Amino acid sequence: MTYDIALLPGDGIGVEVVDATLPILEDAAERGGFSVETTRYDWGSERYLQEGAMMPADAIETLEGHDAILLGAVGHPDIPDHVTLRGMMLPIRKAFDQQVCKRPSVLFEGVESPLRGYEGEDIDFVVFRENTEGEYTDAGGHEHQGYAHEVAVQTAIYTRQGTEAIVREAFEAAEERDGRLTNVTKSNAQAHGMVFWDQIVAEIAEEYPEVTVERLLVDAASMDLVRRPDEFDVIVASNLFGDILTDLGAIVSGSMGLAPSANINVEGHSPSMFEPVHGSAPDITGEGVANPLATVLSVSMLFDHLGEDDAAANLWNAVASQLADDGAPRTPDLGGASGTESVVSDLRTRL
Ligand code: NAI
Ligand code: MG
């Protein structure tokens, strides 16, 4: 079996962590008894600065034929963030109908949480974030710019199909895990879209009687992710709320450098995309200290998605074993003094 993976390293440390992860991806595939062919597309901010577009016009057709996509990050200090994000990541998520964004937050043994009193695997939850609509819908306008009556409108859209898709995936995950689902909305203030969302959660809950459903408003959920992160199992949230809560999830479980993510096309008619949660980190770009583990864990999720369970587990366990080992190299975000390359070399010995 050979899988055909598209690599989109992107910008900044995105390029560093994808390059560093490649040899591990190949090792893990070989041990898993399959091979991976990669095609690298150097799209992103450098291309934008030279040619005025992050990706070529036929980018989506080019990516369409691949089995999966591994993305680094996009973002450049000289280009507004909405240009980079809307020029590359959001169009891919939308074109390939990657409606489900799955982001696990695990406090690995040997990693220190900034919160007191938690250790190895006390924190272990997964956020299911709606990924192609909601607050990130490209609907709105900005008129009369520069005049006193200037106005900006940004509309959030919740479709029944999209909401059902994310909610159903979250229930499926809760059923396989500890049977607890937390539905995060803001239905007190946003009485149209969010009340509709709650209604769909209630409808689908009927199909999963063994899953306990808790409801939290997003402000209370933010507090509780700090106050009692160990009590969460599966969280389902809209695009914006899921985005915010997963940064919180990443940091309470140790570092942005450890948080992986999957953008999934549930029906399987288009490729899914896997990427670390973090951005291009211009503050550390070029220093060789970016933590590659979020990307390695994202590759584990990619293998899992392709049905290569052994290779997925092998990668995940290698990361867990390295983090649990006092003597292993660590990047500065985890309190160490090692660089990306030494973390990768050590990891290859653990596969
Ligand atoms: P960021 O995630 O790039 O960095 C936040 C902080 O975490 C920085 O101090 C950075 O050094 C640290 N950090 C992140 N990843 C790390 C890693 N692997 N190892 C060690 N430390 C790490 O977020 P920020 O600074 O808000 O955004 C920088 C750029 O990235 C912006 O242009 C933004 O638009 C873009 N961005 C892109 C994302 C993506 O492509 N998925 C997601 C978030 C931001
Ligand atoms: Mg984010």
UniProtKB/TrEMBL annotation:
Gene3D superfamilies in alphabetical order: Isopropylmalate Dehydrogenase
Record carries keyword Metal-binding: yes
Ranges for region Disordered: 327-351
Stretches assigned to the Isopropylmalate dehydrogenase-like domain: 4-347
Superkingdom of the source species: Archaea
Keyword Endoplasmic reticulum among record annotations: no
Keywords attached to this entry: Manganese, Metal-binding, NAD, Oxidoreductase
Cofactor(s) listed: Mn(2+); Mg(2+)
UniProt xrefs under InterPro entries: ICDH/IPMDH, IsoCit/isopropylmalate_DH_CS, IsoPropMal-DH-like_dom
GO MF terms, alphabetically ordered: magnesium ion binding; NAD binding; oxidoreductase activity, acting on the CH-OH group of donors, NAD or NADP as acceptor
Protein name as annotated: 3-isopropylmalate dehydrogenase
